[in-house]
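Teaching soon. Invent one.


***
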Amino acid sequence: MKEINWSQFWSTFKKTYSIYLVLLALFIVCSFANPNFLSVNNLTNISTQLAVTTILAFGQTLLIISGMLDLSQGSVLALSGVFAVSAYKATGSFTVAIITGIVTGIVCNLINAVMISTFKTPPFIATLAMLTMARGVALLFTKGQNILQLGDFTVLGQGSIGFVPIPVLFLIVFAVITWYILRHTRFGRSLFAVGGNEEAAVASGINVHRVKYTAFIINGIFVGMAGILFMSRVNAGLPNGAINYEFTALTAAIIGGTSFSGGIGSAGGTLAGAFIVGFLDNIMNLTNVDSYMQQIIRGAIIALAVIYDIRSKNRRTKSTLGRIEDKSIRKKGKGITPSHKG
């Protein structure tokens, strides 16, 4: 019988399941901190409110794994949403509205892809530029005014199928899509390869440009749909809506174990990270924590998550170098032949 290497087992277990243990521990603490936390209405509200930012977080996860990111998500969401709302008011068709919102998200993200992949602009700069442009277009299109009286358009953001809110159903669908892409597709494996080492990915025959363009197109679909759900839930087309949502999405992805250095991440981890953020926000509201203090806590969480990511990367690097060195020593040892004196 093979002896279990408990050190290796614990290391693997911690790397795979630690985020879920943190989520479970937080859930238990929150349930004791305020009795209202466990109410069905409260948990339903948390899930509904998280739907939009978590869908954005899945898009961020795909991009960050491949070594990129998107700071324009909130602005593109707003632009996609107001275009979708306008299309619905003009036609009365959910289909036209959804297609309009998604196409808007794709077009904006294709521009990001062109700047980043073709013109080699750093993702931070390219998407920061799109953040400003998309918000400007949304404000110009609406002349800075909110679009009101959406009618049945609110069904997508406020309706339910049975006892499950429609936004939560969309959240589940996008979670499954992200999981499937990362775990069961060649494109998903290419994302990890490009983010882990782009030069090695090129050498292995991966079309890096195609991978980056596809990642941004998928992100555009996610952002476009998130914009539709957001405007439907608030019952208005808000050109100034969803400000800083991209940072909430980034926080969820990073807390969920997606590495800022690329090559590491999972759909399940991002979902858990989103709920950790949601539970923290909810319990702080239930316990009447000062709003300014809430901002400080959120900032501290982001800083701790990034520090943990950097330390984890350094440990992985040292471990890899150590294994390479051990192999080198063993090979040298095998190459030495004993000498005999005559």
Remarks:
- The two ends are 46 Å apart (CA to CA).
